[in-house]
Amino acid sequence: MQGLDHRRHVTWGGLIAIVAAVLCLGLVATAPAAKPAKAGKPAGAGKPAAGGQRDCNGRGVPVSKISIQEWTFAEYIGFGTDAATQARLEQVLAFLHETGYRNIELFTLSGLTAEQMRDLLDEYGIKARSRHVDVGTPATPSDFDQILADNKTLGIKFFGSGGTPNFATAAEWTAYAEYLDGLGEQARKAGQRLMIHNHNWEFERIFGDRSAYDILLENTDPRNVVLQVDLYWSTRGLGVASGATSVDAADDLSADLLRQLRNRVQLAHVKDMATGAFPGRIEIVGEGGIDFPMLFDATHRPLRYYVIEHDPRFGDSTFDPFEAAATGFEYLRCVRF
User: Smallest Cα–Cα separation from 162: which of 183, 132, 187, 200?
Assistant: First the structure.
């Protein structure tokens, strides 16, 4: 990671040069994907503005609130801790900066220390605002002190596991919620906020008249545990649980959820759902059927961060995470709500 002080101003030509240099060194022999592709067609209207972006007629989401989950690039970056993995990480960060991103939600440090990752992000003018990291369970607790220490170094305030275990009993969900509440209190005293990120099963696991999500809410103090609502998974889970047959019907349920949760929701994962048979697969933001303006309007107030995410389609060469990131960014920047 030496000799790249110019990286704040990396262009596509610069990216190609970086990739060529890395290839010559034989560092990307095991790369799981090809080099970055150019961004897809941006959403919005108007003539291109500076940096290749388009003018927007809508007020959009402020760039300061737009973030992206690093998991979008998981297949491209890979899961190693070697120089090749870190080179691909740098390519992604260069692309994100050029696209306009100033925030990221991490899921891995790719073998770097927290200090090294913070320095790398600083070089690209990107801040780690949130993080997915395994905080453990009552049976398998994490090294929570180390997580808090790394978060402090990285400058991260919001963090939590990327998903909850799919427990089979209400008692297990209750114990897990109480475990999270204890961690959340510790995090709050350290100036950080533990968050719950949902998938679909929290809404589909029903115990009498309560869902697993209800149990999580009832057994955690809002002061200790906040929420990151994944809008794809909430739409899917609530829709399946209610017998919905379309995205339109299901995302109405997500809107109702956001209205009920009010300011306990601090962040959202913004990812779309393909139309057609319900539930559809994850789609590029703005190219599916989820009514994001309705969902954004349903929150009690603007969220801290709107985190674009597209789960990788592992093994599908037609999926381009760079296109997903660029198209999603332009959609959020220009969306009306």
Answer: 132
Are 105 and 131 in contact by the 8 Å Cβ rule? The answer is yes
Task: Render each residue's pLDDT in the chain as its tens digit; 337 residues.
Answer: 433 333 333 333 443 343 333 333 333 333 444 444 433 333 332 223 334 455 676 579 999 999 999 999 999 999 999 999 999 999 999 999 999 999 999 999 999 999 999 999 999 999 999 999 999 999 999 999 999 999 999 999 999 999 999 999 999 999 999 999 999 999 999 999 999 999 999 999 999 999 999 999 999 999 999 999 999 999 999 999 999 999 999 999 999 999 999 999 999 999 999 999 999 999 999 999 999 999 999 998 999 999 999 999 999 999 999 999 999 999 999 998 8
For the chain, the straight-line distance linking the first and the last C-alpha, in angstroms and rounded, comes to 42
**What are the distances in angstroms from CA 68 to CA 285, 321, 336?**
12, 11, 20
| Placement of tokens 């808090």 in the chain | 148
Chain centroid, CA 277 distance in Å: 25
pTM of the model: 0.85
Distance CA 96, CA 311 (A): 17
8 A C-beta contact, residue 146 and residue 153: no
List of residues 6+ apart from 293 with CB closer than 8 A: 335, 336, 337
